[in-house]
């Protein structure tokens, strides 16, 4: 496994692991402030380079494949997460935009890592089995990510929460 690691592959692996660690710290720490900003930039830069170097890794099929598309989608999520933060003035729902896109970037990173781990440690006989395991692992991690992203989504200032008085007995807003 290590004997076939190229320089771009090594850079990709190290920065992806850094992204997993920094991303998990970001999830567990309070949001806002200079530490959140510094760790956020570390995550963003690590992902930009990791996604870029992923485009140079072709060991699995020898050509461009769906894994490269995943890296491009992840790169798009990173860009969409950073743009509202850097805009001036910031859009009213910038926190929700940032949270949503950075969360999906992190879920994509975790799906890729889980896939890599499962494919590398499972006794798969054919490439077809490897693709099936890749798809199944990605779907499971993405589904879990979907549930967690929706569960912990911040309240958007552009859509105020209904007041208790506006809730009817049946639970529907009046």
Give the CA-based shape: globular
Q: How much of the residues is beta strand, in percent? A: under 5%
Q: Assign a percent range to the helix content.
A: 55-70%
- Rounded to an integer in angstroms, the radius of gyration calculated over CA atoms is 19 Å
Cα separation of the termini: 61 Å
Mean model confidence by pLDDT: 87
Low-confidence stretches: 160-169
* Helix/strand order, N-terminal first: HHHHH
Q: How many runs of DSSP E, i.e. beta strands?
A: 0
User: What's the main sheet like?
Assistant: none
Number of separate helices: 5
Structural class: mainly alpha
Description:
The protein has 174 residues and is mainly alpha-helical. It contains 5 helices and no strands. Helix 1 packs across helix 4 and helix 4 runs antiparallel to helix 5. The termini are far apart. About 6% of the residues have low confidence.
Secondary structure: elements and pairs:
Elements: H1 7-28, H2 33-54, H3 66-86, H4 94-121, H5 127-151
């Amino acid at each position: 496994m290590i004997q076939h690691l190229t320089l771009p592959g090594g850079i990709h692996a190290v920065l992806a692991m850094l992204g997993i660690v920094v991303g998990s710290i970001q999830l567990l720490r309070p949001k806002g402030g200079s530490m959140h900003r510094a760790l956020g930039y570390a995550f963003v830069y690590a992902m930009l380079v990791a996604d870029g170097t992923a485009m140079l890794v072709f060991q699995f099929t020898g050509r461009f494949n769906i894994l490269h598309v995943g890296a491009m989608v992840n790169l798009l999520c990173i860009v969409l997460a950073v743009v509202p933060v850097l805009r001036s003035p910031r859009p009213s729902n910038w926190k929700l935009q940032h949270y949503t896109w950075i969360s999906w970037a992190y879920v994509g990173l975790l799906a890729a890592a889980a896939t890599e781990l499962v494919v590398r440690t499972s006794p798969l006989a054919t490439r077809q089995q490897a693709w099936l395991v890749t798809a199944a692992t990605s779907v499971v991690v993405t589904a879990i990510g979907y549930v967690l992203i929706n569960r912990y989504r911040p309240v958007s200032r552009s859509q105020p929460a209904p007041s208790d008085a506006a809730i009817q007995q049946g639970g529907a807003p009046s």
